[in-house]
Model the fold of this input.
Amino acid sequence: MILEGKVIKCLGIKEGTSQAGREWKLASYLIDTTTNEQYARQVVVEVFGEDRIKELSLIPDEQVKLNVEAESREFNGRWYTSVRAWGRAEDNTDAQ
Done:
């Protein structure tokens, strides 16, 4: 799925170590979507992994088009949804 919008701000980077002993990083960004100008929505997008964070290098006020995956999971009877970006979407509008 493609999410298009403007990066509003970086919400921070979380770091930790997995049970297997591997270090991990997770960056969160607030994106103001542009798919419907009249009713724009804000979405928190996560980027997992130091390499992917560096690859995407999202900065505030930047217009972006991202490949994302949405996933929901249940915990203690409540459902939580996360949206993870895994790359920038190709802009095929100029291709003929």
